[in-house]
Design brief:
This protein is an alpha/beta fold. It has 6 helices and 10 strands, in the order βββαββαβαααβαβββ. The longest helix has 16 residues. The protein is globular and about 45 Å long. Bound molecules: adenosine-5'-triphosphate (ATP) and magnesium ion (MG). The site of magnesium ion has 4 residues, from helix 1. This is ABC transporter domain-containing protein.
């Protein structure tokens, strides 16, 4: 298989994740291995509760595995502290949360521009311009002054997608990005994620929506805490 680059942008090796509750230990990931290259869209499906969001949080550096190694651009990030992880995340990773995580006291436009505040070189006018462009792409420009609670679920989802892309990340992680969308918006989100992939970015989509299988360069099922490769575009 021809790869856009010689090494993966992100790679997970022998990842396990256990959750400890009062009465028991839940083992969610059990020797999970995963690599993604620039220019690829990887799609992960699997039963509810199989560990997809858990895995996304680990890939997105929002949570740490119980054991195993993570490599970003061929460098282990095992020893990175919280500050360096946050910095890597804000420069390189865009995350669409399953439940959006929009900040309730910020308007749609302010939510989208939020990741740009971490980029000191981007001045206020450019911040507004980039945010408005993203909102236009997602068909949410007219609603830019609305607050999350004034938006429908699908509208909030589109604002969350705009926010994940505004800082031009190399790795986009989308957890059920079309869960609340009608067919037309679903199609435009798929097209947008495809276009981003063609820009030599890497996109990971976790979904219950079978349509994504047709767009996947690599398609996995999460089964018993492991990723099983179902198909891969040669
Ligand atoms: N903080 C936590 N403490 C204890 N158990 C947890 C925690 N977070 C997740 N789990 C458990 O881990 C398992 C995997 O959860 P996860 O959210 O990753 O599933 P998922 O595949 O994303 O499911 P869905 O398709 O419903 O979004 C579930 O059984 C869940 O109960
Ligand atoms: Mg989930």
């Amino acid at each position: 298989m021809e790869q856009a680059s010689t090494h993966p942008i992100m790679s997970l090796r022998h990842i396990t994740k256990d959750y400890h509750t009062n009465s028991e230990v839940v083992s969610v990931l059990n020797d999970t291995n995963f690599s993604i290259y620039k220019g690829q869209m990887v799609v992960i499906m699997g039963a509810s509760g199989s560990g997809k969001s858990t895995l996304m949080n680990i890939i997105g550096l929002l949570d740490r595995p119980t054991s195993g190694d993570i490599y970003y651009d061929n460098e282990t990030i095992h020893n990175l502290g919280d500050e360096s992880r946050t910095s890597l995340r804000s420069s390189s990773i865009g995350f669409v949360f399953q439940d959006y995580h929009l900040l309730p006291h910020l308007s749609a436009e302010e939510n989208v521009s939020y990741p740009l505040y971490l980029h000191k070189e981007i001045k206020s006018q450019e911040r507004i311009q980039k945010s408005q462009e993203m909102l236009k792409q997602l068909g949410m420009y007219e609603r830019r002054h609305h607050y999350p609670k004034q938006l429908s679920g699908g509208e909030q989802q589109r604002v969350a997608i705009a926010r994940s892309l505004v800082h031009n990340p190399d790795l986009i992680l989308a957890d059920e990005p079309t869960g609340n969308l009608d067919k037309q918006n679903e199609e435009s989100i798929i097209e947008l994620l495809q276009a981003i992939t063609r820009e030599d970015k890497a996109v990971v989509v976790v979904t219950h929506n079978e349509i994504f299988q047709h767009y996947a360069d690599v398609f996995y099922q999460m089964v018993e805490g492991q990723l099983q490769e179902v198909s891969s575009r040669a």
